[in-house]
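Tutorial, part two.
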Amino acid sequence: MALFVICSALLGGVLVWYSQTYAFTWDEGFHLLAAQLIAHGKKPYLDFAFAQTPLNAYWNAFLIRIFGESWRAIQAVDALTTTAAVILAADFLRTRFKEWGAASLAAVVILAAANNKTVIFGTIGQAYAVGLLLVVLAFRLTVAAVGRDRKMFAGLAGLFAGAAAGSTLLTGLVAPTLLVWMVFCSPRGKRLSRPAAFVAGAAVALLPLFLLFAQSPGRVIFDVFRYHMFYRRSDWPGATRHDLEMFAAWIDSPQALVLGILAAAGLWFITRRSGWDLARRREFYLCCWLSLAIALYVSTAHPTFTQYYLFAIPFLAILSAVGLFAVSAQLGMKRPLWPTLSICLLVCLGLAKEIYERRDDRSWQDMETIARKVVEVTSAGASLSADEHIYFLTHRTPPLGNEYISSHKLRLPPALSEFVHIVPQPEIDRRIAAGDYATVQTCEDDDWIKERKLAELYRQKAELAECAVFWDWAGGKP
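Running the prediction step on this input gives:
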């Protein structure tokens, strides 16, 4: 167990370190601002546009109330949450695959936690970390519900699977997959009671969404469903080509290739050579079904992104650890040390390369520099047009409709736009031209700035971290 413990502690430390230094994605600002607004008493959908399911935002709001309005605390918690998810996935092998003992557990830890997507997206304030932990918990409890004949475990599995979907729609197919497996693998006399407990648990987890729906069905349906089905590709003429590039991205990823090849080898070993009983094999087959269900489901998102496949990584890592044993056994290797170290070294080198290449990317520290400038030049109570990160860092409530900057690209009928709290870009441009904002901060490119004539409308300008701050409106005090 020493190797397993060392790997877990080391990678947990790496995730926390990364969360405090380089961890940053652009969309995270929207999620943290939503949590901040909730902490201040506002409700998603009802008071501002929020094109996500709400549980992760409420979780972040809870962390804000405990630790204050800081991105650092949220990202540190997310790093530990991701670490816990990986350890739970590795622990699945503890009683089911003892051929290589701690070496197999260490392989799961490295293959899952040192994956580029796990480190980059499992350490930020979006729903990846929470969703990852919840789907692994749901998987473990589903297996326990069938193996130990515990109805309570089935209810908890449904609770966590429902909470995962309530945190991010990217996990939406996890609950149905687990439910079908539970029905199929349960004896005839248990094929109603366990699934019923599972469904009841999922319903409890989604209760916050149901309560918001009861208060404003139209807003919730638009933000959670209609936005994703009809409007995500608005003002994105190359979205289809982008999707095709994402589908083919695994070809250029050594980590993805290693996971895929070893997972296939593991599945072959389990099916053909393991000699395990059916119940044990079915538990590993569930890892395969979850991986496929998640991968196929997130591929239907338009546009899709490679990080969406993150939720399949723990289950692929489990199969890959078995595959590493199978390949090594076929090659006549009887000791686990060198095969495990070789694969772990390859994965870790890929991670180190990714972190090195991202060293000069925009960071929260850059956004803090911009926020300090905005505070310096904008008087208290003055109207501000800014990116979500700046509202969060300056603790300023954005003007209505500015809570989700990406929604500005939508062109909705005026009545619907007002109903769902979305202000289209032409209206934002009109407000800028009219001097409604004392300060305008943007990280858009020079063409965007020139189109809105910001350099002519404002006398003062500062450029920081490839972003710009404009203030002192030329037409007088707004």
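DSSP finds 23 helices and four strands in the chain. In part three we will examine how such features are distributed along the chain.
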